[in-house]
Amino acid sequence: MPYIPGSSLGGRRVDLGPLSLGTVDDAGTAWHLQELEGWDSAEVRSEHSLRESDHGGWASPVYLGIRPISIGGKVEAADLSALDAAVEQLLAAVALTDTTLVVYEGIPKQVTVRRSGKPLVRLLTDRVAEYSLMVTAADPRRYSTTLQTQSTALPSTTGGLTEPVTLPILISTTTVAGSITLVNEGTIATRPTFTVEGPVTNPTITVQYPDGTVRALLYSSALEAGDQLVIDTDLHSAVLNGTTSRRLYLSGQWAEIPPGTSVEVGWYADTYDAAALLTGTVRSAWM
């Protein structure tokens, strides 16, 4: 049957890189999605050691394992030539390198996957083929497709009273708090990325939690004008200008945002410069 390009096939939609499954593409090829296994939950890693001379055992911390995901369905094309092109498009989409897999549900979520098994394509007719793909997300957390991004300059106060004065007087000041708020609406802790732009000397980034506790990261060096330091709290890395590791200069506690929680991120430095900038980015995360 002919399909309308750009239309939905009425079920779940999944994007594997540039390929949209569950829709009809611009060439009129229908990408049916019939199987999505492994999206519901990742495996877990845990151990139990038996108690000596007692009932039960001792439980280790529980961590999520990698997330293998199998994707299956059917492709319907206008003719054999269009089907051949669709198969090549499918094989290219299930890439050997990092690829974003997006599942459109109530809150769209994404993971980063790579091919982890042989793609299986079975030609049924000269217009129809079945496919089965295996990909794996090394990071099992399912992230919001919305990236939160907030920026702030160093804290400062300008304006105020200048003497001598003539009554009546109006005193006005401008305050930059030097803080931002990041939120995790998901069900598992997520880890933000901080970008510091110079000039700034010995910047300290603080993360304050709702219970009042604070985690801080100190970068014990200077950034010149035009320098950019990216601190990834998940990878535990600090990279200057996209090329050079500066992990050696970083000390303190790595921050993460618990599920259903918002945190206040602030910063300060040895000296004030209006051009210095802190940017925090994060995605809410689900198990």
Shape: globular
Number of H/I helices: 1
Q: Helix- and strand-based class? A: mainly beta
Topology as H/E string?
EEEEEEEEHEEEEEEEEEEEEEEEEEEEEE
Helix percent reads under 10%
Biggest sheet, in brief? 10 strands, antiparallel
Radius of gyration: 26 Å
Number of strands: 29
Which spans of ≥5 residues are poorly predicted at pLDDT below 50?
none
Can you characterise this structure?
The protein is mainly beta and 287 residues long. The protein is 5% helix and 47% strand. The two termini are 39 Å apart. The model has no long low-confidence stretch (mean pLDDT 93).
Break the fold down into its secondary structure elements and pairings.
Layout (H helix, E strand, L loop, with lengths): L12 E4 L2 E3 L8 E8 L6 E2 L2 E3 L6 E3 L3 E2 L2 E10 L3 H14 L5 E6 L4 E7 L4 E4 L4 E10 L4 E3 L3 E6 L2 E4 L13 E4 L2 E6 L8 E5 L2 E2 L2 E5 L5 E6 L2 E2 L4 E5 L4 E4 L3 E2 L4 E3 L8 E8 L8 E6 L2 E2 L1
Antiparallel strand pairs: 1-2, 1-9, 3-8, 4-7, 5-6, 8-12, 9-10, 10-12, 10-13, 11-12, 13-29, 14-28, 15-16, 17-27, 18-23, 18-28, 19-22, 20-21, 20-27, 21-26, 23-24, 24-25
In short:
The chain is built from 1 helix and 29 strands.
List keywords for this structure.
single chain; 287 residues; mainly beta; ten-stranded antiparallel β-sheet; 1 helix; 5% helix
